[in-house]
Every structure is written in structure tokens, then in C-alpha cells.
Amino acid sequence: MSNQKDKVTFKQSLKNNKFIFKTAFKSAPGLCIMRLVMGFITGLNHGITVFLTSEILNALDRRESFEQILWKIAIMAIYFAVYQLFYSWHWKQYNPKHKLRFIRDLHKRFFIKASEIDLSSYDSPEFYNDYVYSMQTCDKSIMNSVDTLAEIIRCLVASVSVFSVVVNIDWIVAVVILGFSLLAMVIHIIENGIWYKYEKAFSKIWGKDWYISRFFSLADYAKEVRLTQIGENMKDELQKNKAEERVLIIKRQKEFLALNIIGSLLDVAENLFIILFMSYHLMVTGEILIGGFAIAIISANKMRGMFSQLQWQITQINKQSVFADKVRKFLETESKIISGERELTTFESIEFKNVTFAYQVTEEKDGEAKTVYALQDVSFKIEKGDRIALVGYNGAGKTTITKLMMRLYDVTSGEILINGVNIKEYRLDMLREKIGAVFQDYKVFAATVAENVLADVYTPEKEQVVLDALKDSTFDEKLEALPNGIDTELTKEFYKEGTELSGGESQKIAIARVFAHNNELIVMDEPSSALDPIAEYNLNVGIDKNAKGKTVVFITHRLSTTRHVDMIYMLENGKIIESGSHDELIRADGKYASMFNLQASKYKAESTENNKE
Fold this sequence. Notes:
Order of helices and strands: HHHHHHHHEEEHEEHEHHHHEHEEEHH
Number of helices: 17
Helix content: 55-70%
Largest sheet: 6 strands, mixed
CATH superfamily of the domain at 4-331: ABC transporter type 1, transmembrane domain
Strand order of the largest sheet: 6-7-8-3-9-10
CATH topology of the domain at 4-331: ABC transporter transmembrane region fold
């Protein structure tokens, strides 16, 4: 839905629509050309139809021979047959086939672009919302822009061709029809202005309707609807919403009333003039035949309709420009993280030197941008084979460090060195191939178990790799229960018989994804958050097995994992406040020791309660 802030200038509107047409033409040049050709042909068809009808009616009025009239009817029938065959071929054969190719190519371009742009783009709600909206509507909206241009061509060609026929009958009638059509077009422009004025208010109402509809239909809210009275609140909101919509409709229709009356009077005046004028020349002066009389009436209605549609299509150009602007901004988004050219053959060390990372947040109240520091002057070094842990409470900056390691973001100041070389000098693809990561917000894809583990195409020769990775992530027991083993489809997105996994099972799949690849640096972001203590222990055994000789970075709140790492970095407010081994930090009796002892006392209390039970 558009709103007032989406308004663009006429110049920008033309620029945006030009961009959209070029985008469509790049994906489907033949389809675009055929749409425009069809616009011209269907427009010309109006004039030809009026002309042929006029010829037959005049022939009847002139009392021409039956054979002559029959020939004219035959010519008209042949024309209509050829036109209808071509029209049907285009819409039922050519268009569906080429439109499918267009949609496929267009979505492919969007997907490629989405995978190339910086992760920071997704941190902007405005960018993300525009991207999702563009993706969901791109094929329909982009082709609508092409159709709008085709419709404008059709209306213009139809109006010119019909006007030309009427001029040959009587130029005065032609001018009158043109004048009334222009007046009707002006009225429609004013009506559209009223529609647009109310659009923002209606968009808000329709948005609330859509939310309430989802509230009562989605499984996300099903439990709350049944266990609380929140459903009654939503029903009240719906009633208020509909009452507000009714008030707006009444106000809008009052503004339309005068225009509707004027439009109706113009229609009556135009038809009355044409009937009286043409009747006079038909019956008194004899300057026209009955065909001319009929065609004048038909042409008046046709031209009025064409001008009305022309005005509507011009209005659509401005509306489509709002969407076009979103698409253009997305497709023209340039990545700020540029790949270097240096090859990374092996990982020896990674060093953070005085690294600061900040981002901008817009305040809701005043709309001003505020700088938020996720990391401030952070320095440390990890050697090949080290196992380190980043610990701290939420928002301390732990996950930000790992994202900087993978160059999902670039530092604001300072530098990151890999093997003593700035990380920006390395090829991005080679850098990321060296790193395997289990993110806290891990995902399971709508694919088979094997494809989920490999995050790639599965082939039979990779079977043992998949099985070993699943075993080391302690998923093997669940695997035995799956109907098709590693070929089992996960989630019900594509297959209604697909298997849904629990949180812990899904996390094991994500961990197996790391074990299946020979990464030199492994990042484990809360790898056991969804696991019970026994599964966590077995997982640590699997990590020990798969991570021999590799560098491992743990991000964790559960400090039982940190007892066996080489170095622990305690973060707070984006700064490293403590560092050392587990024993060293316990002896220091600082923030880490306090955090560890608090968790240890909790575990002891739970153990005591379990023993009592």
C-alpha cells in the first residue's frame, strides 16, 4: 500500500517507469514488444470496426445490391476472424509461455541481488520492508507497468482512429465528441484526486483489517485466542475499524456527488446534441446516411470511454512509480563490502587491533539518528588451533565480533588481520570458505536432511560425510526414526508429509552442517542453547573430535563450555573487561567468576531438587 510519503514528482515518476520498463525488457524483450504491438493492434481495431460497420450501414441505406453488401460483410467477417485468431494466440499461447520465463528470470535476478547486498541492509526496517514488498509483487507489478504503456498506446490509437472516421462523416460532430471527451477526462482526474486524498486513511484501515484477519487465522495466535480474552479486544477493534471506514466512505461519496451529477449531465448533453444534429442532417439536409448517424453515436461512447481509460492509465503511471522506486533502489543498491583480490590458502591467525563497530539508529520520537557502539577499541589475537570463548550478557558485542570475522560487516575503525594481512585484502569467497558457523538463530531449510547438512546439492558419494556429521552432532538416534533417513524432507513448506523437528533437533542439524565441511575456523554461537545437559556433553565430545587442529570460537551464556577453552574474553558494553583461562578468571574473582558461580549455584540447586524428587 502506498501512503503520502511515497509521493514522487512527475519527472521522477517518468524516470522510475522508464527504469521498470528497462528491467522488464531485459528479462523478456519479446514479451514486452508483443504487449506494445498488441496495444497498437487492439487500438486500431476500434477504428477499423467503426469504419467497417459504417460501410455496411451506408450500403444498406444506399440500397446497394445484395451481392455488394454480402462482400462487405464477408470482408468484415474475415477481418474479425483474423483479428480474433491473433488475439487468442497472443493471450492463450504466446503470453502464458513467455510470462513464465519472464517471472523465472526476474525472480532469479532478485535472488542473486539479495544474496550479494550487505547484511547491514537488512538491519534497516525500511529497506527490508521495501525489499520484501518488491519481491512479493515484482512480477505482477513490473508487467503491470508494461501493460499500462500498452493500454496508453491502445487508447491513443483507438481515439485517433475513431476520430478520423467521425471527421470523414462530419467534422463538427468530431470536434464536439472530442470536447466532451476532454471534459469527462478532467472530471475523472478530479475524482482520482479525491481517491488519492483518502487513500492514506483507507490504507491504515485496511492494514488493521489485515492484521485482525491474520490474528484469527494464524497458528501463532491460536493458543492466546483460546486461553485469554484478547479475541474480544480484536473484535472490538474490528467494529471500530469498520465504523471509521463507513464514515470515510460517506465523506468521500459526498465529494463525488457533484462530480457524478456534472458527468451525467455532460453525457446527456453530448448524446442529445449528437442525436439532434445528426437527425437534422439525416432528415432535412440529407448530407449523411443512416450509417453516419449510428456511427456518430457509437463513436461518442467509444471516445468517451477511451479518454476515461487514458486518464486512468496515466494515473496508474504515478501509482506504479511508487513501487518502481522501491525496485529501483533495491536493484541499484551497491555493496559496501568489496572483495579483495588476495587468495587465502590457509588460516594461521586472526587479530583484532583497536576495533570499533558502530551503527545508526533512528529515534522514533524525533526521527534523529543516534550512533550506537556495539564494540569499542577491542583488541585480541587468536592463533591457529586455539579455542576461545566470548562470554557476557546480551548486547555485550559477542556475536558482532564473529560477524566481523566473516566480513558480514566491516569495522568502523581499527582493523582485523588474518595471517598479518588486513582482512579486506582477501577474496570474500575464500575467506568465508574457511569459516564454519552455527548461528544462534540457526535455520532448517525446506529440503532433505542431507541437503540441510551439506547446505548444497546432495549426491550419493557424500552419504558417509552426512552420516558422520549427524552422528557427531548426536542426531543419529533421531535419524533412525525418520521415515526416509537422510532423504527425509524437513518442514511442511513444500510437502505436507514433511517432518517438523524440535528446537534441539534443529540445532543438531545446524551443528552437523559445520561438521560436514572442512572449515579451518569454527564459530559456535550458543551451540547448546536448545540441548539438555546430556546432549550438551555429547555435543562437546563431537566438537572435540571434529575440531582437532582447528580454531574454535565459542559464544555462550552457559559457562560449563568455557572450562576447557584456552582463553576466555569477558565482554560488557562492547568492551573486553576480562581475559584469561577459566582458572585465572575464577581466581581473579571478577565479573566472569560472579557469572560462573551464579550459574553453578543454580545447577546445584536444580540437582538437589531432582534428587529429592
